[in-house]
Amino acid sequence: MENSVGIPKYRAAVIACGGISGAHAGGYLSNPRIQLIACADINPEALERFGNRFKVPQEKRYLNYEEMMERERPDIVSICSLHHLHAPMTIATAVYKPKAILCEKPIALSLGEADDMIDACKSSGTLLVIGHQRRFCPQYIAAYNAIKSGEIGDLVSIETHGHPGCSLLVDGTHTVDLIRWFAQESPVEWVIGQIDFRERRSAWGSYVENAAFTIYRFQNGIRAFMTLGHLLSSKDKISREPLWPDVPPGSYHLFRLHGTKGEIQIDGDAPIEGRPWVRLIKNGEVKEIPLGANSDKSPHGLLTQAILDTLEKGIPHTLDASSARSTLEVLMAVYESSRNRSIIELPLKIRENPMFEMISEH
Questions:
Q1: Domain finish residue from 80, 99, 130
Q2: How many Å apart are CA 269 and CA 280, to the nearest integer?
Q3: Which residues sit opposite 223 in a β-bridge?
Q4: Residues 110 and 176 both lie in one domain
């Protein structure tokens, strides 16, 4: 609909009102052209907390998200559910033909699910965006712009190390998404990797591994090396020591971007006391790379504005579902490499999740 001065207004709704839903709501509320009109969750307490916090009218709070979609017909919908619900909820929501769906990461738990989501949204004319919002965080933008301006010459390799509790589907999806972005989204040629699943952990609605490492190569020649998770010291004692030793305590992941003329390092989601958050190492010197414009803006606010730019101006969204599928393909290739004990060439031909297949076989 349009307001009195002819500026388009979009009606937004949120499905699943857990922790991350607040960031989605904040992104909508930061934009004067978006009105948050409804929410849905099967948990009455979570629904009430979210509704009260973001001033959603009582009659617009639903225990059934499909009932909400049927009655409210929002223009933009956030899906903030557990991972195993991303695919079925996205497919069911697309039936109501919203203009855009913003689904939390990872896009899905298998390539088959991701393809079904993409097909459903294409059929309904719905823009599908996946919440890899770190592309809109100022520290990563500063590093990206420094690479583009030639500060380290040609980018040769990317090295990343995740925190002790991280895993491919929960946190590695953000890391791989950023790696692909820094590598100019060149297609990945091959992947080799290994996982440790001895602890049989679950998180956010699915199995996740304890630790993983992988090396992969992009078509443009850039290579990536990534470690995630923690070591298990014995059958009786679980160690939370990170797989790689120099991950700063409390850091989400450490980035090292190696170029022909220097190196850029990023201390993840928060600066470490005593050193620059984003730093250029060149000719034996360490120099701070300053954060640029919009460094005070919320990543979800910028992501949301980019959705409007796509809907109104046709500007491709950097986080559209095809990009998220490419990230998921790398994650699935790590599992497939572990299953086959070999290098895996992309594109993958499988629809299933190889880790889940391995679990079912044992």
A1: 130
A2: 17
A3: 157, 217
A4: no
Q: Is 3 domain-assigned?
A: no
* Torsion of the alpha carbons at 247, 176, 350 and 101, rounded to the nearest 10: 130
Which residue type does 52 have?
Answer: N
Coil vs helix vs strand at 199: coil
For residues 20 and 144, state if they share a domain.
no
What is the phi/psi pair of residue 190, to 5°? -150, 160
pTM for this prediction: 0.95
pLDDT per position as a tens digit, 267-283: 999 999 999 999 999 99
Give the Cβ contact number of residue 222 at 10 Å.
22
Which helix or strand (DSSP H or E) is residue 66 part of?
A: helix 65-72
Cα gap 210→208, rounded to integer Å: 7
* Alpha-carbon gap, residue 265 to 219, rounded angstroms: 23
Amino acid (one-letter) located at 1: M
Q: What gap in Å lies between CA 247 and CA 221, rounded to an integer?
A: 26
Please state, in angstroms and rounded to a whole number, the distance separating the CA atoms of residues 325 and 287: 36
Residue 289 lies in a domain: yes
